[in-house]
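On clarity, I found the account of how folds are encoded harder to follow than it need be. An entry of this sort, consisting of the sequence and the corresponding backbone structure tokens, reads as follows:
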Amino acid sequence: MDPLSIAAAASSLVFSVVRNGRALATVFEKYQDSQQCIFMMQTECTVLAAALSQLQMIFSKVPDSAISRYPDFVMEALDLSLVGCTLTLSVLNKEIGNLVESIDDNAAKMTKGKRLKYLWKEESMNELLQQLRGQSSALSLLLKALDSSSIEQILTIVQSGQPTFQKVRNGAESIRRMNPQEHYAESVMDMTFDDTKTIYSLETSWPTDYDEPIDSISTKLEQSTLAAKPTSLTVGDALPDGWKTGYSAEYDQWYFINTATRISQWERPIGPATAPQNIIPPQPTQLPSRKPVLSPNTPITTPLTVQAMQPVQKSSRRAPEPSNNVDDNFDFAPWKINTNAKFEAALDNLRREASVPALAVGVVSVDSPPKIYVIGNRKQKCPSPVTRADCFTLANTNIITTTLLAILIDRGVFRWEESVVDLFPSLASRAHPFHHQTTLGMLAAHHSGLTSQIESVEDGDLFRYIRQVSAKKGRFAVAMSYLGRPPDTNPGTTYSWNWANPILIALALEERTSSSLQSLVKTLIFDPLEMYSAGFGRPDAEKNSSMPANPTQPWGHRDSTMNPLNPTEVNLFQPPALVASTGIHCSTPDYASFVSMHLRVSMGMPTQILHPESASRFYTRFSDFSWTLGGWAIASREWAGGEAFMDNGRCDGFSISTWLAPLKGKAYFAIANVDGDVGLKITDNAVGLAIRHAAN
């Protein structure tokens, strides 16, 4: 194969993937019972398009004479993957086209339920989803092989990926058997530009509801691959005597093999081999599935439209600080909180003394189901009690944004060391030179040098503007404003929590994946963790606001006055761009699932969405500071057996405090529907009570 043919095939397939992804969004609302499958297909299309675009960029710059440096088996695998993509996308194209056409033509012939059941082919669409995942995995392996520095590394990667390539081959053969009337090419060398255009014609495809030209999306995908990605093993110093490397295609990680004993391990060895397993990388165990918590007032499905989030108050958000209320030394005599009844009574006394309407507390253990306690009422002076299924607004969702970033770093889409110039190529010429060395890790750890609060920047004009525009436009405006002037302090030297940091991360996520932050969070975090109650904005806002005397969900309250905040008014006031750091809601059992995931990963255990080997830096100190790259504060606590991780927040009527104690296998959190100092104090005190209760 010649580089031009590969680049042309990859370029053509990028258009096809993007078109299919946009078409899936068009049919999303018509198939509410199948939205999870559609969302996952959209995500795989995004990942596949990025990989194909990167492949196109590589081979568009490779001269014909340089193609011989790649072994034949690599080129054969590449040809197989490109042909497999062609076949899979061809079938997906037709299936979506039939869905759109049938919805339009048969709307008057059948009832809605019967029509959708008739049109949606669950088995075939799930099979296509699996094929899309296989194509993405195969291309990811090949990109790693193409970027490797030695034939030995290339051979190791391709050999480890044989099961993946076999799945691609089987999928292609299955499509050929199921569509004998189609004459699919056996190799990209047999394809011509016209043949590809006939299958994936952009002019004759179905219309979509998107107004963004296909060219602009393709340009974004090309720009998203300009930054280098860590696809090869970092060699550094030579390995100690008696060790060699292996590669796991399943977990996308290099591992190390003791040649004398055949022991394999993820960690890089620091001494010579001395002392018993096969060459098999450590296998993560699957977590058991958890049943969803159903609310009687709200549907299970995530809201289809993203609501604007809650208003920002100047004094309502500050840097999380490890609280002294979660004390090191507990005196358990003369009383003990050694029963659930005593613990709930203690929580209720704490809530009443602070005049807080509602309080939710969770105790998460690595070896047992979480324990959830909810007390109080949804609104001050209202008799409607809170339940386990009620959705509290999370006052700080910055940790969710950085978790999403860690997932994409795990998949090779980002690197902690990427600079803002790499992240935002279109702003490179406008960014102040002092920002050129600011990295993604600095943004995530709030060490970016940005200290000016977003409400006061440019005399308040920026904040007024982002309240009136979409999330995407608002985030881009924040990037232009903050990066266009010098940082307030030297990047990487000082911690300062700032709204701009998660906003810039969210913009980078959306730019590189061509997906909204909301869809990425739902697909990569909420769905795998089975957080069925989670959504964006205030839950059930209209109904909740229309029933002030008997609310259906918790209302937020101001700390100084305890005045309740109308959910609809709060949603309308909040700038959409701030969803990156506030404005997500979920039930307490669902939040416990999120906390449990972080507890397990921080302990070096695998989870549904993060692997401990690649995510270890998420819990690693940034430089020598008491903050991690993931945004956790680090504090030493006796009850935690050493270092614990903490995150808290207070904003727009709610407060939250979360603690992880990986050395003890425990985590604790508390949520209150009041903000300010009152909210922070009661959530910290509630966590302290939970620790005492767990100790007994």
User: Anything to note?
Assistant: Residues 382 and 631 are 37 Å apart (CA to CA). The first helix runs from residue 3 to 28.
